[in-house]
């Protein structure tokens, strides 16, 4: 994925104020930053559903929003788009048919998001965290090459969060690229690469380990604060827009971008 000179205006102000970065395939990439910093807007631009003021977004070698990308990208928005009056399995079967995903996919993805026990429950009667997982399961249908997930772990207990992050790492090992937004810093440490955003700009694009080394602090929340301080003193330019470093690679990368 390649983003260059991206600018977006929303509600009369600049939600994205000039972004440039690359995401190599087969990584778990965390998009982190405070509420309102532009994470959802960036994800929408990557999905091709956001009007942009300037810049280009290239996804899997095609312009964002190109029709042929529909079957190659899985997207779970922050607000789950699922049918409340259908069961989990019925929702999955419906979306699998729309996406022409393999017939065995609903069962597979229900297990992957740990919803097997709720498969026959109406979605409207599930908890918020369970509904989010239905949305995530839909994004996994058809085994997409890129998964774009907007805050998929909100409302989940630590055990489920851990399970989902293991699933993300597993998928990346199989060559899937994951872009996952979160404002929970303890999740940042699980990513191969972090995009740290603030007020529509990137503070840094780097692996958690490099960021720790660069700032001299271990806790990623403190790393973020350090980078903000440095930005105030004009030091962040070196904190840079580098792509993923060699030591944050997974073993296999089947998908070229
Ligand atoms: N529908 C909208 N109309 C106008 N402005 C919007 C709209 N949605 C978001 N914005 C503005 O765009 C900016 C970026 O919002 P965005 O939703 O991308 O942030 P975010 O980082 O995803 O926040 P959160 O973590 O709270 O979801 C904010 O200033 C917000 O007020």
TrEMBL record:
The keyword Nucleotide-binding applies. Residues 247-257 have a biased composition (Basic and acidic residues). Keywords: ATP-binding, Nucleotide-binding. One of its GO terms (molecular function) is ATP binding. PROSITE patterns: ABC_TRANSPORTER_1, ABC_TRANSPORTER_2. InterPro entries: AAA+_ATPase, ABC_transporter-like_ATP-bd, ABC_transporter-like_CS, P-loop_NTPase. Residues 235-257 are annotated as: Disordered. This is ABC transporter ATP-binding protein. The lineage of its organism: Bacteria, Bacillati, Actinomycetota, Actinomycetes, Streptosporangiales.
């Amino acid at each position: 994925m390649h983003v260059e000179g991206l600018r977006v205006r929303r509600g009369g102000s600049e939600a994205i104020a000039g972004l440039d970065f690359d995401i190599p395939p087969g990584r778990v990439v965390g998009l982190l930053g405070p509420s309102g910093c532009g994470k959802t807007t960036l994800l929408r631009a990557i999905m091709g559903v956001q009007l942009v003021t300037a810049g280009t977004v290239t996804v899997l070698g095609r312009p964002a929003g190109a029709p042929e990308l529909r079957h190659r990208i899985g997207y779970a928005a922050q607000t789950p788009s699922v049918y409340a009056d259908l069961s989990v399995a019925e929702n999955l079967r419906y979306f699998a048919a729309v996406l022409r995903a393999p017939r065995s996919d609903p069962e597979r993805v229900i297990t992957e998001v740990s919803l097997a026990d709720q498969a026959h429950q109406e979605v409207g009667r599930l908890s918020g965290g369970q509904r989010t997982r239905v949305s995530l399961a839909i994004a996994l249908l058809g085994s997409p090459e890129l998964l774009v997930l907007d805050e998929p772990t909100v409302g989940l207990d630590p055990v489920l969060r851990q399970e989902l992050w293991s699933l993300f790492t597993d998928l990346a090992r199989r060559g899937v690229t994951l872009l996952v937004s979160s404002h929970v810093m303890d999740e940042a440490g699980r990513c191969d690469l972090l995009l740290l955003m603030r007020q529509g700009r990137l503070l840094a694009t780097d692996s958690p380990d490099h960021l720790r080394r660069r700032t001299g602090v271990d806790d990623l929340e403190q790393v973020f604060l350090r980078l903000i301080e440095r930005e105030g003193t004009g030091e962040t330019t070196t904190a840079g827009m580098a792509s993923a470093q060699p030591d944050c690679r997974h073993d296999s990368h089947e998908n070229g971008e």
